[in-house]
Model the fold of this input.
Amino acid sequence: MTVAETPASFAAMRTLLLASTFLLAAGSAAAQSPAGGMDILTPERVFANPSLAGPVARGVTLSPDGELVAFLRSREDDVDVLDLWAAPTGEGEPFKLIDARALVPDAGELSEAEKARRERMRISQRGVVEYSWDEQGRYILAPLEGDVFLASRSDGTVRRLTETAADEIDAKVSPRGNYVSFVRDQDLVVHDLATGGETEVTTDGDGLITWATAEFIAQEEMDRDTGYWWSPDERYIALQRTDESTVDVIPRLDITGGGASVIEQRYPRAGRPNAVVDLYVHDRESGERVQVDLGANSDIYLARVNWSADGRTLYVQRESRDQKTLDLLRVDPATGASRVILTQRSDAWVSLTHDFKVLENGNFIWSSEENGWRHLYLYDRNGRRLRAITRGPWPVKSLNGVNQATGEVFFTASMRDGRELPIEQQLFRASLNRTVAPVAVTPAGGWWSASVNKTGTAFVGNYSDPDTPSQSGLYRADGSFVRWIEENRLDEAHPFFPYAGRQQDPTFGTLDSHGQTLVWQMTTPPDFDPSKTYPVVMQVYGGPSGGGVKRAWQSANNQLLTEAGYIIFRLDNRGEGDRSAAFKQALYLRMGQPEIEDQVLAANYLRSLPFVDDSRIAAMGWSYGGFMTLHMLTEPAMGLTSAISGAPVTDWSLYDTHYTERFMSTPQANPEGYAASDVVDQLDRLTGRLLLMHGMADDNVILENSTRVIDALQSRSIPFELMLYPGQRHGVRGNERQLQQWRTYLDFLDRTIGSRAIKVQ
Done:
């Protein structure tokens, strides 16, 4: 079905969504939980140990031989520190493989480069925050507090490979398990596990030149957090060289509780030069290094790099600066010579994915949105399309794995019975050999994610729904259950159990906007009485993302709001969510316009409900959500009483190239769109009270975005409230500060739309 035909399915989607509200999947591995206690949840308990989420397994992976499952788990005595655990896939209990505190009792200060890398990866914890297997499954490599540790499967020992003043970052085990590689002081180093010797692959990384590390833009906006790639036979290493000398220096104050320093940050703002990124291939046999031909135009993005199964071909995805063209290059690693074998184009932008998969026979799978929906296609080694693997009026979310022996292709999608269902997600299987209707591997009724093993014979499934905290289990490829990794059963022993009896399940619904169907969810307070009226908090993100409306376990933070007597409402407006290309591209060149139109639609819907007090509606959001709440508070048709804006972008010309230009082009090419999205000129139209928050060391949405609003409000003599966080970057980290943040949220809401607001009236 084409995009033009999709409106006919809107009524069907509403019917399906409504029906699914009342159905739980029969046979789901999710355990039915007891009712739970009736204690009132407090901020002090939410931001304390142990975590109310329970023993959630993170970063779960299967060993290559399928005999062991590894995962990260928060310590009971400190939710912000992770240990590495493992569990046999057969009999036996999970065991701690690496105890972060035992190996490094006194964690020191991370380097600025590692802090920035973790911020880009949204890693807020310490301890073992990432790990990797070798392809034989003999070792697990775990960087820990700037050094590198190696756990051996055979005897369970943990060996420390480095102990240096400098941080070793982006550490990897080579495919055959003979080497460990990492970046130290901006150069790539290879450690020989047999001899213990180190070889510097590069030596001139310094200052503005960095080897083997993803540049800022790739880390922050392109979902690429590495800058080097081993060939399967260990002969070659493809690695990038980054020259930041072309990037503007943006002086940024890094203000902490102990003082302030000026960071001369190389930050590529929209319309300004990017770093120059080149790609090389290092031949470990000859010691030679050749440069890959990425074309005559250096103003491009190195999007993705992959090796063929035999290591004889390097595949490179090259994205144009305007992001309307994505080329697939086939590269000879011996010479660096390349040729374009496939190109994707769009009038708006081509989305980057991780759906590229090279098969053992030389064919490959890649996704495309050319028909209006993201689907998977099979190509031969020369880029000739062989067939569609998936099709229909719904999008593939991700390619999860392939069983090349049986021809099964595994992917996740928000779809039921061939129709889009954005609030749920399941694992499906299709065929390499013919285009057939996908078969659901996991039950419907909630939100699944999956990590499929290399052979496509098993997967780790993570599941939750509004009544089931995140659970992790091991499953066969047909979906049959093998064993729990973390059952996380909501029973009397679960930390959330005392509060579960007052947890309210969300209801779901839809609204129509400009021919598109929007999904929403609403959660009411405990003891809700529809004959009374309640204040509403509209939670919003609003920008390009995976969407926030999900039939999944809800954050305990939400219950703080319902316990305070608020209805919580969330709408995924046009532009938000992994939906059709038309849905996502509605905001192209005009961010802050269709999104606000849709939120006005939501506000009007709320005011039509008899139990909503239309004089007490507030909004809250962070990052793009902060941008949205400012615009919602300055939109008279919204009629908001108050809003909380956290770390907002207030002028898109201050934000980075790849993200901003994808949706808005450049300030030079789209001055009208940039002007319309600048909230400063709209501040005279504030309809209610504002609480503005920002981290004072934010290197993503820099503090200047908020200071220009502060200055404009003060110059207009407009009162507002402000909370700044010394030393915090693009999020507020740690239990103590988050407790203060939520106490501030609740106090502000109480004074503007809550109990104290009523007394003032």
User: Anything to note?
Assistant: Residues 1-10, 19-33 have pLDDT under 50 and may be disordered.
